[in-house]
Amino acid sequence: MRLTVPHMGMLHIAYTRVLRKNGVDMVPPPKATIKTLNLGVKHSPEYACLPFKINIGNMIEALDAGADAILMPGGYGPCRFGYYGIIQEQILRELGYTFKMSTTDNPDRLSDMIDTIRDISSIKNRFDGYRVFFLILMRMAALDRAEALYHYYKPREINTGESDAALKQAVLTIDLADSYAKLLSAAGNVKKLFREVRIDRGFRPLRVGVLGEIFVTIDPFANLSIEKKLGEMRVEVVRGVWLSDWLNDRFRFKPFRRNQTRLSTKIAKGYLDYPSGGESIETVGKTLMFHKKGIDGVLHIMPFTCMPELVASAVIHRISKDRDYPVLSMIFDEHVSEANMFTRLEAFVDLLERRKCEGISRN
Ligand code: SF4
């Protein structure tokens, strides 16, 4: 079995090396490009959301590269994600591909995830299944921490590109850490890598909260590297959605980290009392949280036709009006124009700058 899993941010780095070490013949899809997107668009229903289309493109490229099994998270809930796997399998079979499709029936249940790991690898012992799964989760958390450091250092760097080089090296360091002991020492090395970046310590950048649907928020290909662009504009990104938080809310592997869904649900009360799927409740709860923390504004990222984020978008624009708090929603699909996106982003950052200056002169 030559297994592939569609891309989602840096998730492939968290699992590929560890699963290979445990007997899985991994064929990760090539890095997504415009060709991937075009393939996905060509073979998806027009109304499908952007992550679905990128997934299909990933799957076709991986099958063409020799994969013969696909692992796709499944599940249930108010949005379309739950039946992605079934529709994608039908589309690929109609295209003539022969492969085995595994969907995790309930990605929220630890035992289902462990069974999936045991099904695809040479691991037969349940304890080893847990050990490998939690190592993958911790590698994911380490990758997220490295990205958060990048968000801090990028707008403050003195020599352009130093933080990007540090992030690249950090990702490699974490990738090579394929045991708990190595991961522990990698964490220290990653901090050291960023401490070597020369920064302007007196500079106080604008801070923008980045929220939205998890796939487009964390995947640079899907969001046209919008966080990097903000960093280049000397704006600090304070991201509110992390894959390791999503995993921790379900599998509790970070004992000191609060459950972010529950926290957001509590804060969102009065504006959105029940989650409407996807990350809607996090978007609303964390917009209120960022406002309280003095973050200068919120950038809300969502795929076109994403029902949960459409609900959240309406609610956060009411918050914006009620509290005079800048919020910009950006919608991504295959027609998105890079120039248009960045012009809007620049206008938003200009607005935040002006508000900040006016705030300073009023005080
Ligand atoms: S949250 Fe939105 S974009 Fe993501 S799968 Fe659901 S409908 Fe699609």
Description:
With 363 residues, the chain is an alpha/beta fold. The protein has three domains: 2-124, Rossmann fold, CATH 3.40.50; 126-204; 205-363, Rossmann fold. Helix content is 56%, strand content 11%. The protein contains 15 helices and eight strands. Strands 2-1-3-4 form a four-stranded parallel β-sheet, sandwiched between helices. The chain has a four-stranded parallel β-sheet with strand order 6-5-7-8, with helices on both faces. β7 (297-303), α14 and β8 form a beta-alpha-beta unit. The longest helix has 28 residues, at 126-153. The model has no long low-confidence stretch (mean pLDDT 94). The structure holds iron/sulfur cluster.
Search tags:
binds iron/sulfur cluster; alpha/beta; Rossmann fold; 4-stranded parallel sheet; 15 helices; 363 residues; 3 domains; 56% helix
Helix and strand layout, with pairings?
Layout: E1 2-4, H1 11-21, E2 25-26, H2 34-43, H3 50-64, E3 69-73, H4 84-94, E4 100-104, H5 110-120, H6 126-153, H7 162-176, H8 180-195, E5 206-212, H9 214-218, H10 226-232, E6 235-239, H11 243-251, H12 260-268, H13 280-293, E7 297-303, H14 307-323, E8 327-332, H15 338-362
Parallel strand pairs: 1-2, 1-3, 3-4, 5-6, 5-7, 7-8
Helix pairs in contact: 1-6, 2-3, 5-6, 6-7, 6-8, 6-11, 7-8, 12-13, 13-14
The chain binds iron/sulfur cluster.
Iron/sulfur cluster binds next to helix 14.
